[in-house]
Amino acid sequence: MVKPFQFARIPSIRFKNGVIAGLPGLTGFYGKKLVIVTGKSSFIISNQAEKLFSDLKKVSADWRLISIPGEPSPEMIDNAVQLIGGEKVDLVIAIGGGSVLDAGKAISAMLYKPDSVKEYLEFAGTKEHPGTKVPFIAVPTTSGTGSEVTKNAVISKIGADGFKRSLRHDNLVPEIAIIDPELTLNCPEDITAASGMDCFTQLTESYLSVKSNPYTDALAIEGLKAIKSSLVRVCKEGSNIEARAEMSFAALTSGICLANAGLGTVHGFASSIGARYDVPHGLICGTLMSAANDLNVRNLRKNQDISALEKYKFLGKLFLDKKEGSDDYLIDGFIEYLYRLSEEIRLPGLKTAGADESDFELIIKNTECKNNPVKLSNEELLEILQKRYF
Ligand SMILES: [Fe+2]
User: What is the topology classification, in CATH, of domain 12-184?
Assistant: First the structure.
């Protein structure tokens, strides 16, 4: 029997090396007045940016550039919206990592609205976003969050009273996602590793989620195959375009999966820890993935949850490259693979990343893991944090 499920719409996806060259030609459908959102500088100073801006001039486009220096805060979004004011904008284009894409998505949703974006954030605001927006094109330059295909933008305030909350509406899915793996070639090794682990976590958590369905499972498995063949390779050989393309595919796929199946404990922690300290999202995910799955398996065995354990067995076969093996061998082998991977791509523990053990109680209180395949107690959540502290 097929479980009931929903599957949100996805953008029109253009996936190809060099496909950014087609972006200027796509803008004409929407109009000539653009807002282009980028990160601090890495894209802007690239040859690809020079070519893009020259081609945009050829189609008589006119644009305002907005730079987003880190994970977007409510103030960053409000300031960008204020700067644009009542100016006519036909299209917002974001070119960058997950933070830049989230910022572009939020700006496109907040233009011409008088309130702060804070008012519309889930669990933090007082209003529901109406879903009205300026058309939006997402162009990722890292392979991680999958924001190019999702309907939410994560907005953060970092500190003791910090939060990470989503601006979310079905209509906020970008109109077009342009996935050009060549744009990720210059991504530095630490960001490649952290964003790759974010993507790996997203695929694994949505595959194991209590809300997973046959569509998301089929996609997650394809994404996980790409992770298996290319995550370590891309961290060691950043200029390998084949590995970069596989990671771009995995990230895109992880975005579709998470939007439709939800995520688990690791992303619960990524939200509560990321709200408190200025630690990259992917690094928190990567660091905690091994211990969190270790605890999941321990509890699933206790509960004799056969269907979730079958999924872990499948992950074991995939990541150990084995067709056969006992259930325990394959499942334990997957967990060991995750611990080894943390070492191999040199993911720091939480302490080195900037977290403080004395905050763990508070962090656990603020951690939601509603789609995790098994419920973990507060003591078990603490065990996960302690296992990956040093
Ligand atoms: Fe994530």
Answer: Rossmann fold (3.40.50)
